[in-house]
Design a protein that fits this description.
- This protein is an alpha+beta fold.
- The protein has 2 domains: 4-148, Aminopeptidase; 160-330, Gcn5-related N-acetyltransferase (GNAT) (Aminopeptidase), CATH 3.40.630.
- The protein contains 11 helices and 14 strands.
- Strands 1, 2, 3, 4, 5, 6, 7, 8, 9, 10, 11, 12, 13 and 14 form a 14-stranded mixed beta sheet that branches.
- Helix 2 packs antiparallel against helix 8 (235-251) and helix 7 runs antiparallel to helix 8 (235-251).
- The protein starts with 7 loop residues before the first strand and ends in a 13-residue tail after the last helix.
Length: 376
């Protein structure tokens, strides 16, 4: 673990100042397998979701000048008369942490606190988004803040995953229920018996942009008639994702699949592979094809694809929906955390509840269903 005193810190507050650290930033984020802390996610969010805001990226270097970690915040200036800072795109991201090796998170957060307090003022609010429920770095950040901040954590939420680590598709299926195994084979055979079926992965950047538009349309079709608004219905959210898709495709991270029946797309899947982690972010399907469980079948095919690529893990990301439980072999716990000046506990909790409600609505959580609730 890094000694706190062994770090040299810099706060970058201009986008054109980020260039010298982007490669190190990307390397550290890739090692963690987390797209939400990559510079590509950050810059796409800064230019769309946080337009008009300034960077506030703390860079921690060791005595040799090597970048050991970053805290990539956005300076949201003021909101309702208060100073705010946040990780980028927290309304659309699922898990955040310092961009560093796990053992370096706490010393980097503690060392960064005085520098951030000098920039934002002692009584600002830090919107951390969702963090690992057991992580200590955000507690260290609050404790090391000169005026000390109160942490207002939301109840823990599940982030299920599939541990792969060299298993074959057959070995994975052997660990699923008999009904699951039967459906994967039987429903695909049923679909292929009556139709021409093709599963296609986006290739070029131009194709990816067209395919993400198809994914948006299928996602909208899935959400038609529901009371909750889709997480990617907002035009700014779609502009953000188009930017991120372009960069993710350029980096070789993008995984965007379409299931086509008789040459027409009926299901789409949007995610990425960063490092050894293959992640499922969003999906959509045409309800007219629901009886074939096309969303379920496409999800199964992406698990097969992750295995064939040699990924160590398939991350199902946020949500404890039943369809995810059918695929998952384990789950992590995350919690949304707001750091704020010491106020009365009722006021802090009310503020945190309103903040979390806005984020959950944006991400489309607790909406039920998934790649066909009927595929259970």
């Amino acid at each position: 673990m890094l000694p706190t005193g062994g770090l040299n810190l810099e706060l970058i507050d201009r986008e054109d100042g980020l260039g010298p650290v982007v490669d190190s930033w990307r390397s550290l984020a890739t090692a963690r397998g987390n797209a939400f802390v990559t510079p590509e996610w950050y810059l796409a969010a800064l230019r769309t979701l946080h337009a008009g805001s300034a960077p506030a990226v703390v860079v921690a270097r060791d005595r040799d000048g090597k970048v050991r970690g970053l805290l990539p915040f956005v300076d949201a200036r003021t909101r309702m008369g208060r100073r705010w800072a946040s990780f980028p795109g927290t309304r659309y991201g699922d898990i955040y942490h310092p961009v560093a090796a796990p053992e370096d998170e706490e010393p980097i957060a503690a060392a960064a606190a005085p520098l951030l307090a000098e920039r934002f003022g002692g009584r600002c609010r830090l919107e951390l988004g969702r963090v690992d429920a057991d992580a200590g770095w955000w507690r260290e950040l609050a404790r090391a803040w000169p005026a000390q901040l109160s942490a207002v954590p939301h109840p823990a939420e599940a982030l299920p995953y599939i541990e792969l680590n060299g298993s074959s598709w057959e070995e994975y299926l052997a660990g699923r229920s008999r009904q699951f195994r039967s459906q994967v084979g039987r429903k695909m055979r049923w679909l292929r018996r009556d139709h021409e079926v093709r599963i296609r992965q986006s290739g070029s950047g131009e194709e990816a942009l067209g395919d993400v538009g198809t994914l948006f349309a299928l996602h909208d079709a899935r959400w038609t008639g529901r009371d909750v608004v889709s997480s990617i219905a907002d035009p700014k959210a779609r502009e953000f994702h188009r930017r991120f898709v372009t960069e993710a495709q350029r980096r070789g991270w993008l995984r965007l699949y379409l299931l086509e029946v008789d040459s027409a797309p009926v299901a789409g899947w949007y995610g990425w592979r960063v490092g050894d982690r293959f992640s499922y972010y969003q999906a959509g399907f045409d309800p007219a094809w629901g009886r074939y469980s096309v969303g379920f079948l496409l999800l199964a095919e992406t698990v097969r694809g992750a295995i064939s690529e040699g990924a160590a893990e398939y991350d199902l990301l946020l949500g404890d929906e039943p369809f995810k439980s059918r695929f998952a072999t384990g789950k992590r716990l995350g919690r949304s955390v707001l750091l704020a000046p010491r106020l009365s506990r009722p006021r802090l909790r009310a503020s945190a509840r309103a903040w979390v409600a806005r984020r959950r609505a944006a991400r489309g959580e607790n909406s039920g269903g998934g790649p066909e609730a009927s595929a259970s």
